[in-house]
TrEMBL record, chain A:
NCBIfam families: F_box_assoc_1
Database matches in Gene3D superfamilies: 1.20.1280.50
InterPro entries from the UniProt entry: At3g26010-like, F-box-assoc_dom_typ1, F-box-assoc_interact_dom, F-box-like_dom_sf, F-box_dom
Residue span, F-box domain: 27-67
Name used for this protein in its record: F-box domain-containing protein
From TrEMBL, chain B:
Lineage, opening ranks: Eukaryota, Viridiplantae, Streptophyta, Embryophyta, Tracheophyta
Subunit structure: Part of a SCF (SKP1-cullin-F-box) protein ligase complex.
Protein name from the UniProt record: SKP1-like protein
GO BP annotations, alphabetical order: jasmonic acid mediated signaling pathway; protein ubiquitination; ubiquitin-dependent protein catabolic process
Domain SKP1 component POZ span(s) in chain numbering: 7-67
Length: 406, 165
């Protein structure tokens, strides 16, 4: 710091406010928006009630478009259970703390008489559909569980021929989403057609020409990752569809081992731009198994981790069957719900396992594991008594906080 | 006389003067444009009418280090070293001063530091209660009790895990 004798100074042409001490941060909208853009979604939702002004900024569509979700922010799982007769029931499993209450137990955002289920989670948005409705009465919805906004998709033509729908949403590329439907052609049993709905340009339209697929064996409720939708088949070729180019390609798959006539896929999903595949050919115990990841250039799968569940079975003996059912082939009752790459460090990856009555977090980097959640038993369900013999499959969908518009 | 050519004097709202290298001051867009407007004038004094001396000092400290680190780590590693420095830099600043600093940086139009301070404020309030945030920014709650209760009810889970003020 120095003193100067020069009394005359160039004056700034940018004098706007007379004094910073009078003006405050909150009177300057641009400044306030810049600060708010750095907040996670949960804080933004909390701060909606600071004042009317804050509410209007946070709920402004322009603001939502500028606010990107954190790229690795899977913060919880929605666990979908089918024990309730009229609609699926959800458990909310917080992956970081145990404090948060569930955002919902049933999906009731729309008055759908047949109940609503989740079919896919994609970067913060959920693809949902009517639960118990025949194909003509099935509605499809895109739902943002964070903001609780939803949008019902226009009705599909030839609804009875629809094989599956997949949501394609990548907020880091575009605020718009697309939904890709695959249906059987009218003319031939094994010919399929793709229809695309775009949130920007509206109605369903046919994409490209019909293609051949073993329709019974391909899971057309696909997995979206890196701009493409992936459909695996346990028998015939597996496919992936570049959503922007509208181009269909064959996806390489590991060979089916000798002695097996079809794939035994235990898990197929994505996290942080990585596709994960877990197949299992180790009866009767179903362990060990490999967690594979697709190479970036689609040249094939690499084994990332090998998992042995004998240690888990020792700590959770309820997962072992008392007798070996020759038709079931497996001795351990478990299910892989999710492979999650956590943001904190690069190699912090874990499985979420479902064993009778419980969810377990199994760290792939050091093979440690712990109980994550006891599956709730609401009014009509009785999961408490779930054991290795009456093990029922459930589904888990990643919850990523997002302000995305639907 | 090269030494005076690449210096500039920044004058705070109290009239306190700071002699700064041009390489440092040029990161403040407003200083740059003032000097361009005054080109040819022998005066190299820029009055920052509304910025208090303590903030001028902070901003100069930040950009002095920024420039030094950039020179020293030209080959690479600059980003990491800068991150380290930013952490220390922010630790010295009182939470109340962050608000004054962000106003000053916004006025001087200094993008790198602006982002750092916005992030720091966001981090500071992220897990705070609504009441704390109102007090921190001096905001008057203009919701009725019913309205506020209704908004809170919409996202009840978002209010869990609030830190002590």
């Amino acid at each position: 710091m120095i003193s100067t004798k020069r009394p005359k100074a160039c004056s700034s042409p940018h004098q706007t406010s007379p004094s910073l001490s009078v003006a405050t941060v909150v009177n300057n909208d641009d400044l306030l928006v810049q600060i708010l853009l750095h907040l996670p979604v949960k804080s933004l939702l909390k701060f909606k009630c600071v004042s009317k002004h804050w509410l209007s900024i946070i709920t402004n569509p322009q603001f939502s478009r500028r606010h990107y979700p954190v790229i690795n922010s899977v913060c919880a799982l929605f666990v979908q259970k089918f024990s309730h007769p009229r609609q699926p029931e959800f458990d909310f499993v917080d992956l970081h703390s145990n404090s948060s209450g569930a955002p919902f137990r049933f999906l009731t955002f729309s008055k759908d008489p047949s109940g609503i289920k989740i079919t896919q989670s994609c970067n913060g948005l959920l693809l949902c559909s009517s639960y118990r409705a025949n194909s003509y009465k099935t509605w499809y919805y895109v739902y943002n569980p964070t903001t609780k906004q939803f949008s019902a998709l226009p009705r599909l033509r030839k609804a009875s021929r629809v094989l599956g729908l997949t949501l394609a949403f990548d907020p880091w590329k575009s605020p718009d989403y697309k939904v890709v439907s695959v249906r059987k052609c009218d003319t031939s049993r094994h010919r399929c057609l793709i229809d695309i709905y775009s949130s920007r340009s509206g109605p369903w339209r046919v994409s490209g020409n019909p293609f051949t697929a073993a329709t019974g064996n391909v899971k057309f409720n696909g997995v979206y990752s890196n701009g493409a939708i992936h459909w695996i088949s346990d028998y015939g070729p597996s496919l992936y569809f570049d959503v922007d180019k509208e181009q269909l390609n064959q996806m390489p798959m590991p060979p089916i081992p000798d002695g097996w006539d079809r794939r035994r896929v235990m898990y197929f999903g994505e996290c942080r731009g990585h596709l994960h595949l877990i197949e299992n050919y180790s009866p009767p115990r179903d362990t060990p198994f490999d967690v594979c990841e697709m190479k970036k250039d689609y040249s094939g799968w690499v084994v990332k981790y090998r998992v042995d569940l004998d240690g888990v079975a020792k700590s959770f003996p309820e997962m072992a069957r008392r007798y070996l059912d020759p038709f079931v082939l497996n001795y351990y009752s478990f299910q892989i719900l999710s492979v999650i790459e956590s943001g904190e460090s690069d190699d912090y990856t874990f499985l979420v396992l479902h064993v009778p009555g419980k969810l377990i977090r199994y760290n792939l980097t050091d093979d440690s594991f712990k109980r994550l959640h006891v599956i709730g038993h609401g009014g009509d369900t009785d999961m408490e008594d779930e054991n290795a013999e009456n093990f029922t499959l459930i589904e888990a969908y990643k919850y990523i906080e997002s302000l995305a518009l639907v | 006389m090269a030494s005076t050519d690449d210096k500039v004097i920044l004058k705070s709202s109290e009239g306190e003067c700071f002699e700064v290298d041009m390489a440092v001051a040029s990161h403040l867009q407003i200083v740059k444009s003032v000097l361009e407007d005054c080109e040819g004038s022998s005066d190299k004094v820029v009055s920052l009418f509304i910025v208090e001396a303590k903030y001028v000092a902070m901003i100069i400290e930040y950009y002095k280090n920024y420039v030094e680190l950039k020179e020293k780590h030209e080959e690479g590693g600059f980003e990491e070293k800068l991150k380290e420095f930013e952490k220390q830099f922010l630790e010295q600043i009182d939470k109340k001063e962050l608000k004054g600093l962000v106003m000053a940086v916004n006025y001087l139009n200094a993008p790198a530091l602006f982002d750092v301070v916005c992030t720091a404020i966001a981090k500071h309030i992220e897990n705070k209660s609504v009441e704390y945030v109102r007090e921190y920014f001096g905001i008057v709650n203009d919701f009725t009790a019913e309205e506020e209760a209704q908004i809170r009810e919409e996202h009840r889970w978002a209010y869990d895990g609030v830190n002590d003020d």
